[in-house]
Amino acid sequence: MQLCVNAQIPEIMGGIEGEALFIDCESLKISRFNEIATLTIKELREKFKENPNVNHLFLHSFTSKKITDGLSILKCKSWEELEVAILRKLDSFLELHPKVKLIIIDSISYLFRYDFEGDIFERTKLLLEVSQKLKEIATSKNICVTFTNHLTHHVDVRQNIPALGASWGHCSNIRLLLERDRTSNLRFFSTTKNFPQKGKYEFTISALGFR
């Protein structure tokens, strides 16, 4: 949700001034999105109110409603709907919405874990088709494609592993791992693949979102 807000920040304020598509496979809370949008607007107005390069009228024309209008939501209740959305409908949608600079899929693992009835080979084949299509769109249209994946606990090796297996993990160009230390209640994200600065960083979640 935070990314969908940030993708719409005007260029003059350091953003990319785009729109966002959220493919919802679980339960998007639009009230939380509106909260982040409203508080982000407030933060930006305070930050740029004395900036001579930002027109006062322009600053106040950038509203939470404008951010909400720039978010398209596509609800997928089954893996078949997700397959159709990505492989058959996404190209035409992007032609109609050329300002889209971000696509979020949350969570791509949910439908394939709990709804998919085929065998693991069929699932892997379909996931690779989806991955290839998303990479093609990201490259040809200069769009950031972000998807979330669950972790599952592997009893044999006593560690958490990506829910859709290693093959899906290798489909992404960059991977970030979000985790929480249950003893200290601190949250961290780790850069695990192809990130310029690899490491582990603390973050917090507030009303403003991810910080």
TrEMBL record:
It is found in: Nucleus. Residues 1-151 form the RecA family profile domain. PROSITE patterns: RECA_2. Transmembrane segments: none annotated. InterPro entries: HR_Repair_Mediator, P-loop_NTPase, Rad51_C, RecA_ATP-bd. GO terms for cellular component: Rad51B-Rad51C-Rad51D-XRCC2 complex; Rad51C-XRCC3 complex; replication fork. Signal peptide: none annotated. GO terms for molecular function: ATP binding; ATP-dependent DNA damage sensor activity; crossover junction DNA endonuclease activity; four-way junction DNA binding. Its main location: nucleus. This is DNA repair protein RAD51 homolog 3. It comes from Leptotrombidium deliense.
